[in-house]
Amino acid sequence: MANIRDIADSFDKIIKDKGIEKFKYTLTESEKRELNVENGEFKLFRTVFSNSGSIKVFKDNKIGSASGNDLSEEALESFAADALAAAESSPEDPAHDIAPYVEPHVFKQGILEPDIDKFLERLKEFLATVAKEYPLVKIIQSTGSYDRWNWLSRNSNGTEFEGFGGQYGFSIEICASDGTNTTGFDYTGIGTNDLDKPFIELGTIRRHIVDIQNSLVTENVEGKFEGTVIFTPELTGEFIGGVLGNYCGEGVVIDGTSQWLDKVGEKVADEKLTVRFDPYDERINMGERATANGFLSEPYTVIEKGVLKTHQLSLYGANKTGRPLVKNTGWDIIIEPGDTSYDDMLASVKKGIILGRFSGGSPGANGEFSGVAKNSFLVEDGKVKCALSECMISGNLGEVVKNIRSISKELICDGGSVLPYMAVDGIVISGK
After folding, report:
1. Residue 198 class from Cβ within 10 Å (0-12 exposed, 13-18 middle, 19+ buried)?
2. pLDDT at 398
3. Is 1's pLDDT higher than 60?
């Protein structure tokens, strides 16, 4: 592969020759070594090299962009020309801008020299463990990969960031069958910077396998009731992400539809809830190092003990609204643990469900949501009663964060997030 700095130097010349004075671009070269397993058998081992590039051009308070997966001289010429043409034909908006000059930085993250032999051993170990301990579980597909990349970003203010990174990835798609009954599918995955632990012990992989094996026989929810939902860590992240997007996200703040528009500094959630984003936390493998606008990424807290600390605005959103900028556009979410063990959380539930997966449309502007609970279990009097056929749940995102019964001491780290279990009261659960 060509040196990415040489490619960037060529791109700089193209940009200058076209008279582009204000710009920001990123170029990336990557390598993926991937091993696929289907129905318990190794099927494919391949190495794939890929490139990508993107540029934003600013002209007379207008912005245009272009991107693609070819970094040849001809492709770079097209990127610059297409972005310039898009800028010239776009509407004016003085809120568009790039970050001021930041000193050059080089970032190195993760594993730059993989141990492929040990990686293969961990994959074989995982397959053998599942076959021995969970004989009813079928691994529809499993993918192990090592990804390595080198990216370089420059802007017309003289900022230059370069990053080198690499990590192992592992994902599974599973079901269970006993010869008579067959479950639906489930899936999960992790990213990791080391091979110190068996894959089945990482993230929520073992829990997904246990739950799918326990879901061979399901029952229906009878009637409709208001109960408690225990969100598994993935669902905690999904629903809190929905809350932030609906009430703190850039779009709803700019258009003024956020119900938390003027709530910064006020309590908007139960005091047990603290949500922050930290790309430098040791539990986050590949945290963002530089934002799309050209700032160095910084940690921030969006909700602290129930109090809204900030909206989530990029440079454009901050310029558009006059509200504070957040210098972090990644998804390095960390939800702080509570003081309740998972076992005690479960024991406290009179009637409700453990939510394993959720399928629903986007919530309304007021936060109302409704959808299908999948891979879930009915809880009565503090005990898991049975696996559920699909049922419906509905509620309001704003009320979800106000009605938190408990947050678990246990935290699940999948390499990209740090999340607890969360029990929430007042959610409507209904049979099909």
Report:
1. middle
2. 97
3. no
Maximum separation of any 2 CA atoms in the chain, in Å: 72
Dihedral, CA atoms, 233, 177, 44, 52, nearest 10 degrees? -30
Residues ≥6 apart with Cβ < 8 Å to 313: 250, 253, 321, 323, 324, 325, 326
CB-based contacts of 219: which residues, under 8 Å, 6+ apart?
378, 385, 386, 387, 388, 389
pLDDT at 224 over 70: yes
Structure tokens at 224: 């409709």
Give the end-to-end CA distance of the chain in Å, rounded to a whole number. Answer: 55
Structure tokens at 114: 């993989």
> Domains (ranges, CATH) in the chain?
4-16+25-213 (3.30.2290.10), 218-432 (no CATH)
Q: What is the DSSP string of 309-328?
A: ------HHHHHHHSPPP-S-
**Quick one: 38 exposed, middle or buried, by C-beta within 10 A (0-12, 13-18, 19+)?**
middle
3-class DSSP state for residue 281? coil
293, 99 contact by CB (below 8 A):
yes
Predicted model pTM: 0.95
Give me the pLDDT at residue 431, please. Answer: 86
Q: Distance between CA 309 and CA 312 in Å, rounded?
A: 10
